[in-house]
Amino acid sequence: MAQKDREGAGPAVKNIYLVGFMCAGKTLTGRALAALLKRPFRDSDLAVEKACGAKIAVLVEKKGLGAFRKAEAAAVEQLTARTGGVAALGGGVYPSRRWKGRLRASGVTVYLHCPWPELKKRLGSARAGRPLLNGTWARTEKLYRRRLGFYRQAELELNTAGLTPEAAARELKKKLAL
Q1: 3-class secondary-structure state, position 91
Q2: pTM value?
Q3: pLDDT for 33-45, tens place per residue?
Q4: CATH number of the domain bearing residue 164
């Protein structure tokens, strides 16, 4: 007999973890994919904000990046303990060696890729409230390039440039053969 999801969403199946850089579409695509597959949607950043009672930018400003990473680790710990969901993970989770094995053991990792020129356009309107974007574009691009190798180790990859979240979700459903 299949184990039930802790939220009662049906038979336990592997989680789908969406990884990638900020503004690649993890949250919006994740919500669309969860709706399409009739699975619960979870977001590590939203879990951090709920647990801390503050936006991430405020948490980082008042308590530092270390406090955010600690709260993020607790959120990811909880996400990987559940089954059957679609989860959007913060941009720094997958590059952390701490999580890669656990994510793969409890689900499938999908890298939502967006080429730098498109990503820069998306980031332009989202810079406020994102502590890691408080530097120059060159610094942000360097962080993006440094993380690419980690993201590309995900089991699947989807280029989200030019796709609506709904179109990306449909493409992922095909890639995942669900």
Answers
A1: coil
A2: 0.86
A3: 999 999 999 999 9
A4: 3.40.50.300
